[in-house]
Sequence to fold (613 residues):
Amino acid sequence: MCGITGYIGTRDAWPILIEGLKRLEYRGYDSAGVALVKKGAISVYKAKGKVADLENSAADKDLSGTAGIAHTRWATHGEPNTVNAHPHLSPSGRLAIVHNGIIENYSTIKSRLQEEGYVFRSTTDTEVLVYLIEYLMQKQGKNLLEAVQSALREVIGAYAIALADRDDPDMLIAARKSSPLVIGIGDGEFYVASDVSPIAGYTDRVVYPEDEEIAVLRRGVPLKIVNLMNEECSHEVRPVPENIGLTGKEGFPHFMLKEIYEQPDCIVDCMRGRVDTSLGTVRLSAVTENAERLSTAKRFIIVACGTSWHAGLIGKQYLETFCRVPVEVAYASEFRYSNPVIDDSDVVIAISQSGETADTLAAIELAKSRGAFIYGICNVVGSSIARATDTGSYIHVGPEVGVASTKAFTGQVAVLLLLALNLAEVKGTMKPEAYHSTVKALLEIPDKMREVLKSDKGIAELSRTFTYAHNFIYLGRGFSYPVALEGALKLKEISYIHAEGYPAAEMKHGPIALIDTEMPVVFIATKNTMYEKILSNVQEIKARKGRVLAVVTSGDKVISAVADNVLDVPETLECLDPLLVSIPLQLLAYHIAVCKGKDVDRPRNLAKSVTVE
Ligand code: F6R
Fold:
């Protein structure tokens, strides 16, 4: 993963780079570093930890300079420490590089350079690349651009890089392949970043270089983009998408809590312009524009990772129930290497909050190469996945900063529901009464979510009684099974408590052996077609003295009498339960993590955007 940023112009580079890194910190926060270029020198500042640690450690240093590159890291090769932090210098110290991605053949290149007598300082793949570039300059007399082209022709893997040259302080070079890169064009100045957020506010003109393109950023000179064969490439200058930039916590102690609370408004935003409240109908422009292609699809395949994959499992149930079309849900990371049987009669739905997830992007490319039509469901406007798809619908939930996904999940579920409803109407596969009652019930969801949020204080108190636990089990059935998976994922990623989600009836096939008085079992036991079955599953756990926390429908008496603790949600249609039930599970995970003193917004070992496979 990692975030890169760069600046060259007439202003002080340091504050721009530091601000940019803060906006990119969602991509990783193991270590951070900046290289400032001045005539005759490159000054490098690095620190283990977050960007704020870098700022503190450099507070008393000379930070002048109008060009520089910077990096916030999520370690892949080499432990997170100052030596492995970027920027990395070439052997002579002439060049500095920052890199997001993985150079897969770095060890072969490294051995070759070691045989030539080069000694490496770090254990990163990135340092190998800058050594190779300088080697090509020294041994083959190439200039920097030629050496970069030659080196990038040799490397296998993914990269977004920015390079600074001590001997040419008026130029930065940036290049990409399979990792995101945006160039901002200002007045006689350029910005480089992994996404537009560090650029927003400085300029509204950006260029997205394509794979294997190199941007030559010379102070005061127009942007030049060339490919690895040195052919000049045309480029489209685009506006910065709206609503980009830093969001604050707005009085909440953490972004995650703020984002949990935003969900009612997010669902309203998600429906805006798509749900006609007076007619009770749904229109997604992507469906209207591609009605024929979507309605004649023989099969849908949903590809996604993590939380987005969980949303996909719910989307499958929507599409199969309402549109009577077979749907498969695949982990993008498995799909991309699976040689799938897929052709132009298939529609692939790629779900991604960030729109940058490397595995999902690769799954899209594979599906595209076999003729499938690609429908994207993303949050980040203009992201790589949004640009790689044939059509799609944004979830419009606004920037999600907390690493644990919350509002994006419910936004994805809402958009999948809208898609299924719209398509069902086009295909005529849903009875009008069922269609209209589902739309009506969806319109009531934001208020019902507000109702659920009122249980926050109670959940905070209850959470204190769970900090002893080392394991949790989450159980649900039907529409609630993916919510159980998602609840377990939320808990483990921010509290570091091991948690598993299961379809409730699977317990007796093995996992029930885990149940004892210490084991909390979270049941999603709302009033729906599965209620009686879930009740039996609750009894099975109680008979083995497990501690049951049940999420029930308000007014429930039966399961409430058996469970040790209950959290209630307002009644809704069974298919809409996930939108309500997710909230108490998010709050439970949040408060348990807070009680345990964890860094809720930036849990260990994680990053918000997973741009490595
Ligand atoms: C968990 C979480 C991750 C992401 C996954 C995919 O809270 O956020 O599991 O869902 O990394 O990310 P996107 O949706 O950006 O493709």
The longest strand covers residues 95-103.
